[in-house]
Design goal:
The complex is a heterodimer of chains A (220) and B (312). Helix content of chain A is 58%, strand content 1%. Chain A has eight helices and one strand. In chain A, helix 1 packs across helix 2 (35-57), helix 3 packs across helix 4 (87-105) and helix 4 (87-105) packs across helix 7. Chain A starts with 23 loop residues before the first helix and ends in a 19-residue tail after the last helix. Chain B has 312 residues and is α+β, with helices and mostly antiparallel strands. Chain B has nine helices and eleven strands. In chain B, strands 2-9-8-7-6-10-11 form a seven-stranded antiparallel β-sheet. A three-stranded antiparallel β-sheet of chain B has the order 3-4-5, with no helix packed on it. In chain B, strand 6 and strand 7 form a beta hairpin. The longest helix of chain B has 29 residues, at 56-84. The chains are: A mainly alpha (220), B alpha+beta (312). The interface between A and B is large, with 72 and 48 residues. Strand 1 (123-124) of chain A pairs antiparallel with strand 1 of chain B, so a sheet runs across the interface.
């Protein structure tokens, strides 16, 4: 994959600096009895979860609320966590459940309705300086993609977001979804086909961007 | 990894937003640490768990009981689902309860049932008592919103209509007015596109029509085959039944057709209730055009574009 998922996170203001080194499974084991260790896990994953949920909801306030739920649920369930998979994958799964639960109660507001503008000043695409116009334009681009994605069934949205927004490998996505890698590959393949069809149904205006050579990703 | 799929390329290259952490981050951390300090340790929690205090045999019995309840619930749900989503005859009409509601299957007067349901649905719309299910965009360029209504006799009524959304109106009358405006605007857009020769053919759809005769009434019957437009509509094709033929349907004030499943229609032929006389295949072009504001829209028309529009 070409994207560097952590590029935004290089900015210390965006997320906390990741714990350098340190065996995560030991940290998780300690977190079961030591609150400070859970605090370290929190620091490590807060930014990732907040941005992941924001990319799925395009609403900063909602992303913060669901991030809170994610960490509280993780804290409650931590004693039963067997750390066979990665802790991050487990958090992504909890966050995904929170997003699903939220939308179940609010089906009518599933499409992007511009709430990202409410906290516009807190949105970033690059680690370096950006003009407000740059952010606005990139946000519009992302919102168009989000609109199309949000019309797909939930399972495709989650799989595609984990793979392409969070830059997880197929194995990691499988770990999050609790499915086999082969199943995830075919899920993503079908998701891509459905997303393509969704663009075509929407009049394919955004698809024109596909042929534009000026597409740039978030630079580190 | 070499990208061959343009959609995959789009997903990989669209810039990703990140959120700068605000005060929420520290607040949440404090709350989490407080919660972590007050939570009992794992071993203590296990002791207080009801399940952990049960003897193994009681646990087994409880598990079996839960399994039996789940199986029973599943069976009952399936039966209820069958009742609710029965593919038996459905009558569509232009009233508020129309589209895909089920009437006339209980032996009572269908017209009376329709009238009652219409009144009830009008009230429910005014009270905003309905559940939005989803929006459907059809390959023919149409958009529909699906809602569920729960009628007083417990019937779940599935409501599938074009814009506007029910949330945007206060009454059935307002819905009708806005729907008319929407349809007129759509019609204008299409006519403008046709007049300007701007429609670009993007697909050709072929519709199968069985020309039949109803054996009991000796009445002609056209049966149009329709594919489901979304997963919620199941995997079976529908059959739209036009008593007297499609020409009758197109007469003013006579927009009534019945809906059943395509397998039910084939069964009716096999059982001798319907006589199959002929089959027609109607080709319909799907065109894409651009409005003055630059937005694109899709619409169906007979081939070639510019000929008389096909109403059904």
């Amino acid at each position: 994959m070409a994207r560097e998922a952590g590029n935004c996170e290089a900015d210390a203001a965006v997320v906390a600096p990741a714990e350098a080194g340190g065996d995560e499974s030991q940290l998780v084991a300690r977190a079961k009895s030591e609150p400070q260790a859970f605090g370290q896990l929190y620091e490590r994953y807060y930014g990732k979860m907040l941005s992941y949920i924001f990319r799925r909801t395009l609403d900063v306030a909602l992303a913060e609320a669901l991030t809170s739920n994610t960490f509280f649920n993780a804290l409650r369930a931590l004693p039963g966590y067997d750390h066979r998979g990665k802790f991050g994958a487990w958090l992504y799964r909890i966050a995904g459940n929170e997003i699903r639960l939220h939308w179940r109660g609010e089906r009518s507001r599933r499409e992007n309705d511009g709430r990202w503008r409410e906290e516009f000043a807190r949105l970033r695409f690059a680690a370096g300086p950006e003009t407000a116009e740059d952010v606005e334009e990139k946000m519009r681009q992302f919102a168009r993609l989000h609109d199309a994605l949000s019309r797909l069934p939930e399972r495709y949205q989650t799989a595609l977001a984990l793979r392409y927004f969070e830059d997880l490998s197929y194995d990691e996505v499988a770990d999050v979804l609790g499915r086999k890698t082969g199943t995830v590959k075919s899920l993503i393949h079908r998701g891509l086909a459905r997303l393509k069809r969704q663009f075509e149904l929407d009049g394919a205006t955004f698809i024109e961007h596909l042929h534009s050579p000026v597409q740039k990703e978030c630079e580190p | 990894m070499k990208n061959v799929d343009p959609i995959e390329r789009l997903l990989e290259q669209t810039p990703l937003p990140c959120v700068v952490a605000g005060p929420h981050r520290e607040e949440l951390k404090q709350r989490l640490l407080e919660a972590a300090q007050t939570a009992p340790p794992r071993s203590e929690r296990m002791k207080t768990s009801l399940l952990s205090r049960m003897p193994p045999l009681v646990k087994l019995a409880a598990a079996l009981l839960v399994a039996a309840i789940l199986i029973g619930t599943g069976w009952a749900s399936e039966k209820i689902y069958e009742l609710v989503t029965s593919e038996s005859t459905v009558i569509s009409h232009k009233g508020p309860s129309g589209a895909t509601s089920e009437f006339g299957t209980s032996g009572t007067n269908p017209a009376e049932e329709e009238k009652q349901a219409d009144e009830e649905v009008k009230k429910l719309i005014a009270q905003k008592k309905y559940k939005f299910v989803r929006a459907i965009d059809t390959p023919q360029g149409g958009r529909f919103y699906v809602y569920y209504f729960r009628l007083s006799d417990g019937t779940r009524l599935k409501w599938k209509r074009p814009p506007p959304r029910l949330e945007e109106v206060a009454s059935w009358d307002e819905y009708e007015r806005k729907a008319d405006e929407y349809a007129k605007q759509q019609g204008k857009d299409i006519e403008k596109a046709i007049a300007g020769g701007k429609g670009r053919l993007i697909n050709i759809m072929v519709t199968e029509i069985h020309v039949c005769r109803d054996v009991a009434s000796h009445q002609n019957l056209d049966v149009r085959r329709i594919s489901p437009s979304c997963p919620e509509e199941g995997t079976q094709d529908f059959a739209e039944l036009y008593p007297g033929g499609m020409q009758e349907y197109e007469k003013p004030g006579n927009h009534v057709f019945k809906t059943t499943s395509w397998p039910d229609h084939l069964r009716a032929i096999r059982e001798g209730k319907r006589e199959l006389l002929d089959v027609r295949f109607v080709k319909c072009g799907i065109y894409e055009a651009v409005r003055e504001d630059g937005s694109k829209f899709v619409f169906p028309r007979e081939l070639p574009l510019g000929e008389k529009p096909q109403t059904k």
